[in-house]
Amino acid sequence: CFNSGSSCEKCDFETDLCKALPELNLQPGWIRRNGRSGMGPPYSDHSGNDSAYFLSLSSEMRSSSATLRTNVFLPTDEEHICQITFHYWVSQTSGTLMVGLQKHSEDTITNIWQDSGELQNQWKANSITINSTEKYEV
Predict the structure, then answer these.
(1) Are 13 and 55 a contacting pair, CB within 8 Å?
(2) How far is CA 55 from CA 10, 77, 96, in A?
(3) 44 Cβ contact partners less than 8 Å away, ≥ 6 residues apart
(4) Assessment of whether the complete model's pTM goes beyond 0.90
(5) Cα separation, 87 vs 72, whole angstroms
(6) Mean pLDDT score of the chain, rounded to an integer?
(7) How many CB atoms lie within 10 A of CB 15?
(8) 3-class DSSP assignment, residue 127
(9) SS3 for 49-78, per residue?
């Protein structure tokens, strides 16, 4: 759920990638699938639904990295906070999941969260609150 103030956009990948993740930014390596795809675990989404869709790294990408980039978010302030809540799964063969913040005046991406999967092969949830005085992408 991408939450900016009172408006909350839920992104479940059931029909597409949702507004926050433009189709064009789905880099090679990411696939939209569900637990019935025959591609191995996870065999369901975080709620246990085996027909619900999620994004997954293809097996060919095990040795390299792949990025998902959001649309541009507007600056945050006391009235417009940004909280991103997401569910994720880290398997034994994958590396580290990182969330980065790129402000529009900066060329570099600042790492604001990461998990290398100490508790592997199970769904976990995380929320990140972002503060930025300028437009940014995640």
Answers:
(1) yes
(2) 15, 31, 15
(3) 34, 35, 50, 52
(4) no
(5) 21
(6) 82
(7) 8
(8) strand
(9) CCCCEEEEECHHHCCCCCCCCCCCECCCCC
